Amino acid sequence: MKIEGWILIFVFAGLVALIARPMGLYLAAVFAGRRTWLSPVLAPLERGFYRLGGVKDASEQDWKGYAASLVMFSLLATLALFALMQLQHLLPLNPHGFGPVAPNVAMNTAVSFVTNTNWQAYSGESTMSHLTQMAGLTVQNFLSAAAGIAVAVAFARGFARRGTGQIGNFWVDMTRATLYVLLPISILFAIYLMASGVPQTLAGSLPATTLEGVPQDIAIGPVASQEAIKMLGTNGGGFFNANSAHPFENPDPWTNLVQMLSIFAIGAGLVVMFGRMVGDERQGWAILAAMCALFLVGTGIAYWSETQITPALMSAGVDPSLGNMEGKEVRFGLSASALFAAVTTAASCGAVNAMHDSFTAIGGMIPLVNILAGEVIVGGVGAGFYGILLFAILAIFIAGLMVGRTPAYLGKKIEAREVKLAVLAILASPLAILIGTAIAASTDAGRAGILNPGPHGFSEILYSFASTAGNNGSAFGGLTANTDFYTYAHAIAMLAGRFLVIIPALAIAGSLAAKPTAPASVGTFPTNGPLFIGLLAFVIVIVGALTFLPALAVGPVAEATANTLN
Asked: What's the domain range around 244?
């Protein structure tokens, strides 16, 4: 390991901390309906959308109405995106003349982008027309991210409010998330990417000649606009199959750093926003500190592991001092590749700048563990915030049992209803992951997709269901996932991982919003200090270990052991 690699990792963490507060303050102002510097331009547009949709911005919903609006909107968006992919051959902006997307892949993709998973069982540049990429996939990148932010804001209101069952208005929250947060930042980000060499054009390809004199066409298109929201909205679905390893998506180390920062920016800001909404900013920083501790430990292990050479490279005579450069871009190197892998899986982004399938056994296990932790280490926009608050409720409940007091968080008593709902939400993804993996590993249809035998093949299956149920979208890359079995199984996992977490979270928000706030007393467990930070991180690790250790032992741990013995 080199000192430059550690400097990159800690500089990145420091930059995230610097971004978190201004982003959090801005988010708090936006969702409180206060005037911002964009209001003179966007407020009339916002009001126009409300009039067009028949929405009264002053009216609010209880948790059931909020959840119903989200589910209805997601269903309509899924159907619209599926229809677009089926009809793309009849529509303009299809320079390559692509036909309709296979129904099973179209269904999988529609569910994937609407749930903010962006799992791709296809190659974008050889499957989707420009119109589908722009009006379908890029639009859903905005809307699915906005929906996640809206749920996070509603969940925060559950702790901030008292004596009311109202947690906001889904349509208002989603509109503000899109107009005031995602759209303006994405425009600036896309301009930066274009200035850095990322294509933004309606042309279909670029003629080129290789060094051997062979002519070829290089696919291009409206890449920068999709790339910007892909990162900012923690979507991860790339215009190209190679994703952020492709130089037209991620040209150089500077764009690589900015993309990683954009993945964490809103997720980190949301926890600061939470602290402002509940009247104690330290509450948000405590949650961010727990996230940061888990992230730095995982990133350090991944970086160390990738500096080790694999047995296959050793037998091929590769210089051990180079580390494991297989599947990595030379322009990024080991540290930036390991950091990107940790960032994209700590958040539920799923973009990749290296092939996770080529990581060492332990190095590849870290991205997998990040997802299995529940995507709460910063997490996807909104999803990581309400995900870690579910663990905070569980941690407070455990602390209450230990000291023999009624658990309370931010003055709200945590009772049986909230704990049951939190446990239901926390177990939703693990159930989808483990059941899906078990079925795939024990059936011919599931095993047929494995390209690597043994423990690594099992890891490929486990990673695929972790990625889909965790709404991440990245993959080990060694699994054939466009078969009927995997497209439908992964779609079920994506739906479970999204809505079986969101609906209980909203129910908790509604329950807490209706409760009064009790003042802190001498016996109140402090939730803004080191003790709470340690307890929260400990609960996340223990729940993950107890749930997934047997599966990890069969996959990456067994592979690492075999490599050591060899």
From this structure: 24-205+218-279
Q: How many domains does the structure of the chain reveal?
A: 1
Q: At 509, is the secondary structure helix, strand, or coil?
A: helix
Q: What sign results for the dihedral spanned by CA atoms 131, 136, 137, 138?
A: positive
The full length of the chain comes to: 566
Please name the residues in contact with 182: beta carbons below 8 A apart, sequence gap of 6 or more.
142, 145, 146, 149, 229, 232, 233
CA separation for the pair 326, 328 (Å, rounded): 6
| Cβ atoms of 95 and 130 closer than 8 Å | yes
Read off the pLDDT of residues 394-442 as tens digits, 9 standing for 90 and up.
Answer: 999 988 888 777 788 988 899 999 999 999 999 999 999 999 999 999 9
Q: Which H helix or E strand runs over 219?
A: strand 215-219
SS3 (DSSP) at 199: coil
Q: Which of 550, 361, 563, 554 is nearest to 455 (CA)?
A: 554
468/440 Cα distance (integer angstroms): 14
322 belongs to a structural domain: no
Rounded CA-CA distance 337/366 in Å is: 13
* Structure tokens, 474: 């990245």
pTM for this entry: 0.95
- Residue 147, domain member (yes or no): yes
- Contacts of residue 369, defined as CB under 8 A and 6 or more positions apart, other chains included, come to 298, 544, 548, 552
Which residues are registered as beta bridge partners of 479? 450
* Residue 242 domain-assigned (yes or no): yes
Q: What is the pLDDT of residues 41-59, one digit of tens each?
A: 999 999 999 999 999 988 9
Show Cβ contacts of residue 127 under 8 Å, excluding neighbours closer than 6 positions. 98, 101, 105
- Residue 444, SS3? helix
* Identity of the amino acid at 445: A
Identify whether 28 is part of a domain. yes
